Amino acid sequence: MRLLFRIIGTWLIGLALIYLVVDGTRALASNSLVLTSLEQAWTNLHAPSLAGVSEFLDSRFFAALLDGVLRTLLTYPVFAVLGVPGIVFALMGRRPRRERFLRQEQI
Length: 107
Hints:
Largest sheet: none
Number of domains: 2
C-alpha cells in the first residue's frame, strides 16, 4: 500500500512541477504573473468530463455545497491542486522512522 501511495504522490508532484514550469515560462514571456487554473487545464484536456462531473455533483444530496466546493477548487492554480495531494500521498507512503532520538554516544 505504501508503494502505491508513493507512486501516486510521485506522479502528482511531477505533474505539478510540469504545470509550474509551464506557468513560469508563460509568465516570463508575458512579463506578468500567469497561472493556469484547474478549470482551464481540465477544459483543455477533456471538456465533456468537466461537464459530466458537474452534472454528477448536481444530482447528489448536498448539491449546493458540492457545487460551491467544485467552483472554488476550479479557480485554484493547477500546480497547487496537484501538488498538495501529491505531497500528502508521498508522506503517507514513506517508511516510519525507527529511532526518533539520538543517544549521547551517537552525537
